[in-house]
Amino acid sequence: MSTSRIPPVTAVPDDDDVPTLLVKIFGKDRPGITAGLCDTLAAYGVHIVDIEQVVTRGRIVLCVLVTAPKADGAEGGLRATVHSWAESMRLQAEIISGRGDNRPRGTGRSHVTVLGNPLTAESTAAIASRITGTGGNIDRIFRLAKYPVTAVEFEVSGAETEPLRTALAIEAADIGVDVAVVSSGLQRRAQRLVVMDVDSTLIQDEVIELFAAHAGCEAEVAEVTARAMRGELDFEQSLHARVALLAGIDESVVEKVRAEVRLTPGARTLIRTLKRLGYQVGVVSGGFTQVTDDLKERLGLDFASANTLEVVDGKLTGRVVGEVVDRAGKARLLRRFAAEAGVPLVQTVAIGDGANDLDMLNAAGLGVAFNAKPVVREAAHTAVNVPFLDTVLYLLGVTREEVEAADAHVD
Question: How many other CB atoms are there within 10 angstroms of residue 123's CB atom?
Answer without folding.
Answer: 19
